[in-house]
Amino acid sequence: MAVIGIDLGTTNSLAAYWADGRVHFVCDETGSPLVPSTAAYIPGKGIAVGRKAREHFLAGGEGVSSFKRFMGTKKEYTLGGKTYTPMELSAMVLHKLKEQAEGIFPEGIEEAVITVPAYFNDKQRSDTKKAAQIAGLKVERLINEPSAAALAYRMQYGSGDKSLLVFDFGGGTLDLSCVECFDNVIEITAVAGDNYLGGDDIDRLIAEYGCAQRGLDYSRLGLGEQTELLKRAEEAKCRLGEPGEGELSLTEDLLFEICMPLFARMKELFLHILEDAGLRVSDLDDLIMVGGSSRLSVVKRFLTELLGKEPVVLGDTDLVVAQGAGIYTGIRKRDAGIRDILLTDVCPFTLGVETFRRQGEKKGYLLPMIERNSTLPASRRERLVTLNDYQTAVTVKIYQGEEYFSRDNIYLGEVTAQVAPKKAGKEWIDVYFTYDINGILHVEIVNSKNEHNQILLANQTLGGAELERYKREIEVLMTPPLEQEENQKLLERASAYYEQSTGARRERLGALIQWFLAGMNSGRLYRVRKAAAEMERQLKSLEEADRQREDLLFDGDLKWDLDLEDLEDDDGKDLGNTGD
Ligand code: ADP
Ligand code: MG
């Protein structure tokens, strides 16, 4: 069975796989591998994901995008009157990619490798895995986007020792990562970035500039006008590389000017990450341009000036991360063509537990267990003693972050252990932290009686019932359009019958339609299918009855074995549509 690699992006997502010694991309019916990470509600059709959704959304329809920014949070998005978390919306995108990939691998997708930003925390990683689970994908491993880019680089430039800077300039974000490659190891040594610096900002600057040229104030335009203007700005931007004049006569030089404020922020981040990694510009062997916005030649121009040499472009910059994920699937399948490569990572943040120095202290402080920038996998044991006389339990609260007081950090979870009641400080527990390469944190407490209590923090896979519920929901949302169309046709057929009927028959049809609609809107695929099957059966029997009756009228050949009860109250008019 197949293994696919997925770049689950803020703006676009795509899937790739390894075959015949190279990476292939999974393309949609238009031949494009990019699936916009957008979900929309199309009235009468339901939820759509990808290109159609983006078009609907850009035309002012109901839709959501950029939800990856809020991955790991409980933020709620409304679509078609229902609310969804970023995790559920991501599940829809993954489901779409899986469906497309199944076109190539009818035997099914066995496993997926998904890329995530290097700075993603435990919750964000675990929600990404849950999203995959809901979409029906098995995920053994998440890999960091810059590591994937470095893999793609190595395919082209060989596996020598290299200090790389991955410059990933996407739709809404800029992610910089320092990556060291040596032997068969790829290690991220520093990350920096801006969650609000991307192609969208360029579009807005172009739109603002266009407005200013015409003496207009962009911020005073209506939302609809702004959206339309942004759409045109993006089109003009993307057309820059192509021959021919755009609608907004944009030139390279003008765009370079317009982007100056963004370049200034980029330069700051660039200097910051080099400092963090302890590198000088001259230590960098290469800068790899990644992300859709890196297609812009003005960005390349800016980077060339910054580096004093040309950055590396590995083909289509928006495909690089997926390409790396595709290569990694080859490594996972132990394809003879690729060497096994270790993607080690560093932990980009500190993980620790809350402790108190004194009895009665209100604010606990964070005892670091796994320090920021530790190479993964990492583990550590720490012995903690009781704080209060005769306490019978200890609750260990787990946090992520760099702040002194624990409550200023991100709370991840807690685990409790029973302890023998003794004088304060006389009883102890051992706390074990293990943080693995997939960003999964395992915390275990062992008390003096050797009793174990544990919590798994990133890998919290969804429990049976919860998973089933999510799966059913996503299945309904993802009911193939064909099925939706068929259901629509059923409804039309039933409505036509309803209009033609009177009396008890009309009433029965009315009840049937109502029941059918309730099934359609139930949010449960099995109910949708059941309602459709029942409607089909009822309509068939009605149509059959009509045909029989027509036979009766024209042939005089009575068929009394048929139950014509339904027709009793009919007014006897021609029912039409009797088929041939
Ligand atoms: P993400 O990683 O954020 O999901 P991508 O890497 O796919 O996103 O980048 C999307 C961004 O790339 C969008 O802002 C889009 O306008 C921009 N983009 C795509 N193609 C081009 C192009 N030919 N020229 C300039 N920008 C482009
Ligand atoms: Mg990306």
Q: What does this protein look like?
A:
This protein is of the alpha+beta class. Helices cover 37% and strands 25% of the residues. The protein has 14 helices and 25 strands. Strands 1, 2, 3, 4, 10 and 11 form a six-stranded mixed β-sheet that branches. It has a six-stranded mixed β-sheet with strand order 16-15-12-13-14-17. Strands 19-18-21-22 form a four-stranded antiparallel β-sheet, with no helix packed on it. Strand 8 and strand 9 (82-84) form a beta hairpin. Helix 2 (86-104) crosses helix 3 (122-134), helix 5 (199-213) crosses helix 6 and helix 12 packs antiparallel against helix 13 (503-520). The chain starts with a strand and ends in a 25-residue tail after the last helix. Adenosine-5'-diphosphate binds at residues 9-12, 170-173, 198-200, 234, 237-238, 241, 291-293, 295-296, 318.
Overview in brief:
By secondary structure, this protein is of the alpha+beta class. It is built from 14 helices and 25 strands.
- How much of the residues is beta strand, in percent? 25-35%
How much helicity do the residues have?
25-40%
What's the total number of strands? Answer: 25
| Ligands bound to this protein structure | adenosine-5'-diphosphate, magnesium ion
Number of helices: 14
